[in-house]
Every structure is written in structure tokens, then in C-alpha cells.
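Lab channel / #folding
Pinned by the channel admin:
"Please post every new chain as: sequence first, then the C-alpha cells as a reply. Keep commentary short and put observations after the output so the thread stays searchable."

First post following the new format, from NK:
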Amino acid sequence: MSSSLASSTGKNGLAVLLAVCLAALALPISFTGGALAAHTISIEFKASAAQINWITNSFMLTFGSFMLPAGALADVYGRKRVFIGGVIVFAIGSLALDFAPGIVTLNLLRALQGAGAAAALAGGSAALAQEFTGHAQTRAFSMIGTTFGIGLALGPLLSGSLIERFGWRSIFLTGTLLDVMALAIALTVMRETRNPDSARFDWPGALSFIAALGFLTLGLNQAPERGWADPAVLGAFSLSAGALAVFAIIETHIKHPLLELSLFRYGRFVGVQILPIATCYAYVVLLILLPLRFVGVEGYSEMDAGLLMLALSAPMLAVPAIAGMLAKTIPASRLAGGGLIAAAAGLFWLSQIGSGGPMSELFGPLLLIGVGTGFPWGLMDGLSVTVVPRDKAGMASGIFNTTKVASEGITLAMVNALLASLVLFAVRQNIAGEGTAQYVGEAARQLAAGNLDKSAGMLAPMGRAALTGVYDSAFSMLLYVLITVTLAAAAAVLVLLSPKRETSPGKDCVVQE
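Reply from TO:
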């Protein structure tokens, strides 16, 4: 830990920070590890494409939808209590995954992991805010960001090595070990705190928020299988919209809402919310899609896939810190917008590389995407609390973290559904004139989920080479969509976060860039 941190708090504060960082480290490792193991899991459990997608979606759904309620629970019932509870739930879920007998049980346990992760991160962050103040608090929270960067950078390589040596179940044991260490420290040194001014917990708001995200994810996951116009899919989307409307009504009519919607009248605050959404499309989705492509379609080993993913994730160890230093002299809007443009260039470069080429061709575009995304990644947490009036900073941070995590789950579900639809369309175009192929829909979804072997077995007349070409074409089209979204986000960030939008404190922002 840094000397500035040590000099501004006692040993207990540093120990609390260590406990929170250990728990935080388990999250990106579990996230990336699950994606890298998906191909092997699907073979062992003979899983459908939709079930494969839920390996990630179930984790992200509960992680995103429970983050906002968990933060409110921590204020009402105690930060230590929520953190300890979250760590225990995550550790138990991770350990139980080592004994999962089938894909349904595994996905339910992944959902349990996500709920535990939300409580641990929300409770731990709230506890840290009580241990540190001023600049030390900023440094402490930056340590959590650095920890996430380490997990994202080393997670794929660690997971790949564990899968090859000990099997896919071993990657989840890592989360258990990290959380056991975090629990041992927290039980000893973390003090219990709560907000004495907090009102009763907003259960209606929390439940409607969880329902809105849940039904949306369900509809997106089922759309490629059932069709976008299927009544069940449309029903899920309608329920999601209804729950979101109920949530908005509740939050605008209670004294202590979970989500302060009035903050969205600050243009710069809206600009900050775009940053995590943009990084989802430019970066986070690739943490899931690329391992499936590398292992299931291109045939790389999990270890080689982990090495390739290191090119994408390693920049997160240094670039965010560099962005923070540059922001002292360069407007954050230009750094973040420029980074997103660079990431879009990397996505375009990647779109020109098909399956089957040498690994060396992939390092350049992956590195450019990682470097470009690292700039907004390193700036957005700090910006989230400096573009609103000071008395709104706490709520702004909570909204930002919810946007960040919830958008990851929604974006992953949307991108998975889009890729599956693109692959299905391309497969149907290729089998035209050959008669009606059996299992076409499921074969296409298996291919989109990175299971070329199973797809080739279902569509033997097409052959592996043709199916690989179909996948490459669909993947490139998907990358064009990601490029478009990333560039649009860059333009919005350059406008909304422009220094010209700054006004006096209490109106649009509170600090200068």
C-alpha cells in the first residue's frame, strides 16, 4: 500500500482495503474464467446455445440488478454486514460450482455468485468510504480499480492454465480461496457502520428494478431461439418496460429513492453514464465473445486463448493511470473520446482478420482496443462525482456504478442475441436449395456460441469450412455494429463532456477539467 494511504489512516484502514481488494479480485477472474471455460462446459454437459449464454448472463444479471439495492441495504443495515454476507455468498457459490452436476445447476450457482459479488462490492465500497477521507479516499478507491485491472489482465491467462492442468472447475475454486482470505481479514478488522439518516429500505423500487433487468435479459436470451416476434419474447420485453415504468414512478414519489432521477438533468452527468456503456460495446463484450471464438471456432487451447486475451486486457494495468495523469493538462472529454475512437479503429482492424490465421495477426488489434478503452476506463469513476453538485456526489457515484454493472449484463445479452441472429441468417442463406436442414436453428446458435464441432455435426452438408466462413462473416458484421456504437458514443462524450458545457458549481458541474 502507498505511504500516503498509510499516513492518513491506521493499520485497520489498510487491512480493510486489503480485504475489499481481495474480494474485488475474485470478480473479474470469475467473469473472464467463466467465458474461457464455456466451450469445455458445453461439451461436458451437452448444453444448448441458450444455456451456454446463461453461464455469463446469469452472473451479470444478478450482479447488475443487485448492485443498487445492495448499496442501499448497506446504508440501512450496515456496511460490514452486507460485505461479509456478500463475500460468504460468493465463496459458497464458487465452491458449489466445483460440484455442479449439470448446466442448469451451474447457471443457478452463477446467479448466486453474481448476487454475492454485488453485495461484496457495494458493501466493501461503502465501508472504505468510512475508513478514508480526502485524497486518501481517492487513492483507496483507485486501488480497487487497479485490482480489477489486474484481474482482467491476468484472469484469462490464469484461467487458461488452470483449465489445462486441473479442468474447468478449478477456476471457480480461485474465487473461494480469495474470498476466504478477504473474510478472515474483514471479520477481524472491519468495523460496522451505517447511515443514521437512512430511511427504511425501498423494497418496491428494488424489486421493480430487478424485474426490469431480469425480463429484458430473458427476452434477449430467448429471441434468437424463439424469434424476435414470438409472443413469449415480446411478453418479456413488455414486462421489462412495465417494470421500468413502475420503478420510475416509485423513485419520483418517495422521499429516499434508490435512484435520484433528477441527476439526469445535468448534461455532463449524462455524458459520464455513456462512458461505461461505450466501454461495454468496445471492450467488455470481447472478454466473452473472443474466448468462445478462439477456443470453439479457431481451435486454440485455453492457454493460447488466455495469452491472446492478455493482449486485450494487459493495457488496463497501466493505461488508466496514464489517463489520470494526462487529465491534469488535457480535457477529459478529449482523452475519453479519443480513446474510444482508437478502440473503434482496433475493432475495425479486428474485423479484417478471419479465423485460421496466425496468432500474431491478432495481437495488434487487440492491443489497440485495450489501450483505447483504457483511457475512458481510467477517467469515468472520477468524473462520475465531479460533474454534479457536491451534495449529490454520493448518489451520483451509486448511479454510475449501477449503470456500469447493469449495462455490462444488458450489452452482453444484446450482443449475444445479435450474433446468434446474424449467424442464423447466414446459415439459412447457405442452405437454400439444399432442402430443409434439421436442427438449423440450434446449429446456428451453437456456432454463435463458439461450438463449431457440434454445429458441424448438425449441418454436415455444409462442412466445417463453410460454417467457419459463416461465423467469420457474422462476427465481422457484429464488429461493424460495435464500431458504430463506439464512434457514436465518442461523439456524444466529446460534446457532453466538453469544457464549454461547464457552468458554476451547483448548476452543471462542480469542478473544472
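NK: The first helix runs from residue 3 to 7.
TO: also worth noting, Confidence is low (pLDDT under 50) at residues 433-437, 503-513.
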